[in-house]
């Protein structure tokens, strides 16, 4: 069968499964809509959390980021940062928030700090972080459709939106949970199969995590030693030790991603769906098991694909491939504009070098590493079709989780919590569905017309979660004396510091001309890049919150009682 | 009652402190700050520091969460028995 038909078949089958699940798992009450009724099995919830968490960025971009942009070792910031946060979540947040037993993150903040203002600040942080995040997923859906199914970007996005709309509006958290489980299975299969094949081809070891540490087939050289040698020959940083800017920057970058991960509301609310506190703890462990399968495979894909690419472009040291003899996958990806060669010295050869003057591979987009990998490794068409379905599963599952976080913040926190407390359950459920529908349309629109700042917003989403939401939750649980004044001023300080730093280097609202300190590194605070600044914002939040709290009155007894309750031993 | 809960909470805090010290030390010191020192050693084809940063820490995170869940379940049980 042709690749196009095969892709349609595989993607069609997976979509039919998602829709079937959605019809089976309709939400009948607000409890089902917000937290899937609160009786999801902890292992199932772990799997759903893994799909919820691993987005188009994890699936499509991360291996390429590690292998190319971050030059190998530097990419460790993503591997560590996007997994280590789960330890914080499991020990410091999930069990207590589950014990509190409500539906949303801003709801806990509003109750704990006995203040609608605190709740609204939390809603704003949540909306900004989640909406910027969802735009990226919508873009991923459009790209996957246009590359593999040969639809236009707009049509692809419309199909994707329709499917998300259907199961998110109908099923709420219940429908989302069970489709995410199916999506996890699709995405992890699609991610690991090409990795296994490539690992066998290069090293003879079917486990990619071991293959990366093995010797090459027919040689006595370790794969990583060979890789270090070929990249340094071409003038790049050594693969296994090339830092991302500096040790200090890597430290803060990793820490920011960790606490940002733990503070992202769409991840936290997944732990409200399990039956008990005990389940919330173990479920975080299962989530990380399912995430680790992909995250430990990613560095193997990164290293092996980098080696494959270099040995393709330069079959023997100092003898580059002639452009006329480039392989078919090279031609395929040239068409998409993600891969570009420009023959600077006019010798008809492909010179791939570090630095701008000699390098003729003027564009090697990070995203092609995972997407083109099966073609580079000459795998059968069904594997390529599976990768398309996997990319879509990753984008859809994350989009759905974000949409739920957004719509519940609107219907439950703003509408029921602040503006219309007397609203009936039925009306709230309808409002939740309406908010969900509106959010799908809004994010689809933003996916079609991405604002100029879309590219710079990952820093913002993680920065906000790290600098505002995470400290407010931590202090609310671990510091009984924390009061409204401390928490709100802390959140505003964390937000302020992070926004100021991101904006001064990337432009106010990401309009580049207004970047009054420029994006160049000499102006960075101790050489810390804007993406890595969330941890500094969090420190500012903690410092301001504690100082202000000490100068103001302690919280009412009822609130101190509330804190005692969430700390008490679990009942069963 | 409040006393018992306070002892339970202290035990929880001690456990969290211990586990988070490991959570911090291995990736941040072993994988980032002192990575060059650990890179002198090898684990098969991996330099040790590189392996800690791209593989080992992730496995460790999983283990830490399961240890925490296990110990807290035990602790919960003990306090329930004493309470009943």
List the helices and strands and how they pair.
The complex is a heterodimer of chains A (572) and B (84).
Chain A: H1 3-24, H2 30-35, H3 42-53, H4 56-69, H5 76-100, H6 105-112, H7 116-148, H8 153-203, H9 208-211, H10 223-233, H11 247-263, H12 265-268, H13 277-313, H14 328-335, E1 339-340, E2 363-364, H15 368-376, H16 381-419, H17 425-448, H18 457-478, H19 484-506, H20 534-551, H21 557-567
Antiparallel strand pairs in A: 1-2
Helix pairs in contact in A: 1-8, 1-16, 3-8, 3-13, 3-16, 4-13, 4-15, 4-16, 5-11, 5-13, 6-7, 7-8, 7-16, 7-17, 7-18, 8-13, 8-16, 8-17, 10-13, 11-18, 11-20, 13-15, 15-16, 16-17, 18-19, 18-20, 19-20
Chain B: H1 2-33, H2 35-38, E1 42-43, E2 46-47, H3 48-83
Antiparallel strand pairs in B: 1-2
Task: Characterize the structure shown.
The complex is a heterodimer of chains A (572) and B (84). Chain A has 2 domains: 3-304 and 377-453, Hydantoin permease (Orthogonal Bundle), CATH 1.10.4160; 311-370, no CATH class. Chain A has a two-stranded antiparallel ribbon with strand order 1-2. Chain A contains 21 helices and 2 strands. With 572 residues, chain A is mostly helical. In chain A, 70% of the residues lie in helices and 1% in strands. The mean pLDDT of chain A is 87. Chain A has helices spanning 3-24, 30-35, 42-53, 56-69, 76-100, 105-112, 116-148, 153-203, 208-211, 223-233, 247-263, 265-268, 277-313, 328-335, 368-376, 381-419, 425-448, 457-478, 484-506, 534-551, 557-567, and strands at 339-340, 363-364. By secondary structure, chain B is mainly α. Chain B has one domain (2-83). Helix content of chain B is 86%, strand content 5%. Chain B is built from 3 helices and 2 strands, in the order H-H-E-E-H. Chain B has a two-stranded antiparallel sheet with strand order 1-2. The longest helix of chain B is centred in the last third of the chain and has 36 residues, at 48-83. Chain B is elongated. The interface between A and B is large, with 49 and 45 residues.
């Amino acid at each position: 069968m042709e690749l196009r038909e095969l892709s349609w078949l595989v993607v069609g089958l997976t979509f039919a499964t998602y829709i079937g699940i959605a019809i089976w798992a309709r939400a009948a009450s607000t409890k089902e809509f917000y937290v899937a009724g609160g009786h999801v099995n902890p292992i199932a919830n772990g799997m759903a959390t893994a799909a919820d968490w691993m987005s188009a960025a994890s699936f499509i971009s991360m291996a390429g980021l590690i292998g190319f942009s971050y030059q190998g070792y530097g990419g460790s910031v993503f591997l560590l940062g996007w997994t280590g946060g789960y330890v914080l979540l499991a020990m410091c947040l999930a069990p207590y928030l589950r014990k509190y037993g409500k539906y949303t993150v801003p709801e806990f903040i509003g109750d704990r700090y006995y203040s609608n203002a605190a709740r609204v600040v939390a809603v704003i942080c949540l909306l900004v972080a989640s909406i910027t995040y969802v735009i990226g997923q919508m873009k991923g859906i459009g790209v996957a459709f246009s590359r593999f199914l040969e639809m236009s970007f707009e049509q692809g996005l419309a199909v994707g939106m329709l499917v998300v709309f259907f199961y998110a509006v109908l099923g709420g958290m219940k429908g989302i949970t069970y489709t995410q489980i199916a999506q996890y299975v699709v995405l992890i299969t699609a991610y690991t199969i090409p990795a296994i094949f490539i690992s066998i081809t290069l090293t003879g070891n079917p486990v990619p995590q071991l293959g990366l540490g093995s010797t090459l087939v027919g040689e006595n050289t370790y794969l990583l030693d060979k890789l270090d040698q070929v990249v340094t020959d071409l003038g790049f940083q050594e693969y296994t030790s090339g830092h991302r800017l500096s040790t200090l920057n890597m430290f803060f970058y990793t820490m920011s991603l960790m606490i940002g991960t733990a503070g992202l509301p769409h991840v936290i609310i997944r732990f409200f769906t399990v039956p008990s506190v005990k389940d919330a703890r173990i479920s975080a462990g299962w989530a990380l098991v399912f995430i680790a399968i992909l995250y430990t495979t990613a560095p193997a894909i990164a290293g092996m694909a980098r080696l494959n690419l270099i040995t393709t472009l330069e079959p023997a040291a100092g003898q580059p491939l002639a452009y006329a003899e480039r392989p078919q996958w090279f031609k395929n990806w040239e068409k998409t504009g993600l891969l570009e060669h420009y023959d600077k010295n006019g010798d008809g050869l492909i010179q791939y070098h570090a630095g701008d003057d000699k390098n003729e591979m003027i564009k090697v987009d990070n995203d092609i590493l995972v997407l083109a990998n099966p073609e580079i490794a000459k795998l059968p068409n069904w594997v390529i079709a599976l990768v398309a379905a996997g990319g879509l599963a990753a984008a859809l599952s994350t989009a759905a989780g974000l949409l739920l976080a957004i719509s519940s913040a609107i219907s439950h926190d703003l509408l029921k919590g602040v503006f219309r407390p007397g609203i009936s359950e039925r009306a709230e459920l309808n409002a939740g569905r309406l908010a969900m529908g509106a959010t799908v349309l809004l994010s689809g629109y933003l996916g079609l017309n991405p604002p100029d700042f879309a590219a710079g917003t990952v820093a913002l989403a993680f920065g906000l979660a790290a600098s505002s939401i995470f400290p407010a939750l931590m202090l609310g649980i671990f510091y009984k004396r924390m009061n409204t004044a401390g928490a709100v001023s802390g959140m505003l300080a964390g937000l302020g510091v992070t926004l100021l730093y991101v904006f001064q280097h990337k432009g106010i609202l990401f309009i580049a001309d207004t970047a009054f300190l420029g994006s160049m590194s000499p102006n960075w605070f101790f050489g810390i890049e804007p993406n890595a600044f969330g941890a500094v914002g969090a420190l500012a939040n903690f410092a301001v919150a504690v100082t202000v709290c000490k100068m103001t009155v302690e919280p009412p007894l009822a609130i101190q009682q509330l804190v005692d309750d969430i700390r008490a031993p679990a009942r069963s | 009652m409040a006393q018992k809960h306070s002892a339970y909470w202290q035990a929880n805090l001690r456990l969290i402190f211990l586990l988070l010290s490991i959570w911090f030390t291995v990736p941040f010191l072993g994988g980032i700050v002192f990575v060059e020192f650990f890179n002198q050693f090898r684990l098969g084809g991996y330099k040790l520091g590189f392996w800690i940063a791209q593989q080992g820490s992730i496995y460790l995170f999983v283990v830490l969460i399961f240890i925490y869940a296990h110990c807290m379940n035990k602790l919960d049980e003990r306090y329930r028995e004493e309470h009943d």
